[in-house]
Amino acid sequence: MKLSKRGEYALRSLINLGFAAAVKRDLVQVSELAEVEQLPVKFLEQILQTLKEGKLVESARGKFGGYRLAKPAREITIGHVVRLVDGPLAPIGCVSQSAYEKCTCPDEIHCGLRMLMLDVRNAIAGILDRYTLNDVVEITLRKMRRDGIALPFSAAADASAAAARLPARLARQLARGATRGRTSPTDSVLQHLLGDYTI
Asked: 5-22 and 78-86 helices cross at what angle (nearest 10)?
C-alpha cells in the first residue's frame, strides 16, 4: 500500500478541519486549507468533493462559506479515509476484504506469498483502523501547545497570518503608531484600509 497524493491531501485537509473544530471555528474556506498546507486549490476541491460524497465533510455555500467535518473527529478512522480515497489497503487483490480478486496462484489456500501479504494487509489495517482523526489532531495540538506555536485557525494564528501578509511599509507604520500611543494596530489597519471613513 502506498498513500497517493490524493490520500495524503485528503488526510491533511481533514486534520486541518479537525484543528478548526478544536478551536471552535465553524467553517474553513478551500483557499485557507490550500494556503495552510501549500496545496493546489483545484485539486483540493476535487478531494473535498470526494470527502463530501463519503459523508466525512460538509460544506456551506456563499461568500463566507467553506467546509467543516460532517461528524466528530473521533468517529473518523484513518483507515476509512485511505480506503475512501485510495481504495483497498491490501497489497494484492487476493487478500483484500473489500475488493477481493482471485489471483493467478493455482493453490490459494497454501500460497506462501498470499499468507505473507495477508499479514502485511492485517498489520496496515490494524494500525490505520485503530487511529482516529481525533487521535492525530489531539497529539498534534498537544505538541504545538508545548512548543508555543499558535494553533491553526485560532484567533492568534489568524492575527499572525494577517500580520505576515501586511506590506513592510504598513507594518513599520503600525509599529510606529503603536509605540507612540496614537492608535492601536487594529485602528491603524482600519485607517489604512478605510481612509477617513468611519464605521
From this structure: 140
